[in-house]
Amino acid sequence: MIKLIHANERFKAEHGWLTSNFSFSFANYYDPNNLHFGPLRVFNDDIVQPNNGFGMHPHKEMEIVSIVLEGELKHEDSEGNTATTTFGEIQRMSAGTGIFHSERNPSKENLVNFLQLWIVPDTVNLQPTYEKTKYEIEKMKNNLLPIVSKYVSKNVAYINQDTIFYISDLEVEKSMTFTQETGRKIYLFVIDGELLLNEQFILGKRDTARITETTTLKIHANATTRFLLIDLP
After folding, report:
1. Strands (DSSP E) found in 120-163
2. What is the set of domains in the chain, with CATH numbers?
3. Per-residue pLDDT tens for 187-228?
4. How far apart are CA 42 and CA 183, in angstroms?
């Protein structure tokens, strides 16, 4: 089954310094029928204005992944970690037993646009950890490039859940096929461009497909398209 959620169906929050689009219940948006998709609990598409951001705040028992699409994101946390992330890099934080962190746009001129994802971990009471990894952008071309995974690999951020994040740049009129085991889920998000799924469903910029009970996914680019695909238990 493929369920489409179009970009304009997401909940939008405007705060001046911050524009957020929520794919699941978050903050002031609550829908009991839209709480999660498997262990994927939060998928926020955030734009933060220059010299602004989220101040120090706590988290527990959650895997938090940030994927920068444009600009810079500066991280600081109570474990002493400090880093600035840009496109081509992944930031992963395991909140575990408890951590405080801040996420800010350090630029005085440019906005930052990033995806913030929360994944429920498969193990509780973990020691909080932070990691920044860099993936090879050129390997995204017409390929599903793993960037986050439970399975340790070079240039791939580790996560405490049986899930894999892939990112891809699929050229116009190119196609690919993704297969998975029965019983798993696929979450597909179009960053930019337009895809045709299984010769039936069209997804444009910022559209999402939540896919269940489907072991084979045929992906065709109607335009040059950048997208994120998440394989979930």
Report:
1. 129-134, 145-149, 157-158
2. 10-136 (2.60.120.10), 145-232 (2.60.120.10)
3. 999 999 999 999 999 999 999 999 999 999 999 999 999 999
4. 21
